[in-house]
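This is your field. Have a critical look at both lines of this record:
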Amino acid sequence: MVKVKVCGLTNLHDALAAVAGGAHLLGFIFFPGSPRYVTPEQVRAILTAVREQHPNAFGVGVFVNETPGFVRHVLDFCGLQLAQLHGEEPPEMLGLGGGHPSPLRGCAYKALRPRSHAEAHHLAAEYALPALWQGENGPPAFLVDAYHTAQRGGTGQAADWNMAAHLAGHHRVMLAGGLSPANVAQAIRQVHPWGVDAASGVEHAPGHKDHAAMRAFVAAARAAATD
């Protein structure tokens, strides 16, 4: 089964609709530069309420160039299971490459935005998490997103699916970048990712989800995964 992550959630109504629609992972953005920014206090309240109805709801925090200590604190405070690092964080922050142990080892993964096939291979070699860290409910090896000169994500631009497919042949890849109900099935058939991540493609405005679009996205992903 392909995992589905709905990212950029900002309120309880949308989070409940995402879970009810079949999303496996709920994504919350802690980057103040994003139009989908939420505070740790907001996310803690949302997840507490969601888990009253769905105790196993799985949360992912998205961070940009924060310290390991800050990320670990937010994960614990909010009750989030994973961290997605979307900045220029070094591999050591994930617990890779030796050095001092990272408080994020095994619960954080990197978002990669490669500009070429050569850069994609280089970044994958640096940032891919070992398979033994992943498990059934663990993180992907990394996320592949579209490159944008000014924005970190949620741009609506599609990632390079050919590049992503090659990486997915060797690693557990979460695919992001311009995914919507209209194209997610094609993306899954071409890339064969471990998971797919939607933000702007299931919204009617930044940070405000279209509930019908979320349901359609999950349905299309499930149908493609069983083809």
Remarks:
- The chain is about 35% helix and 15% strand.
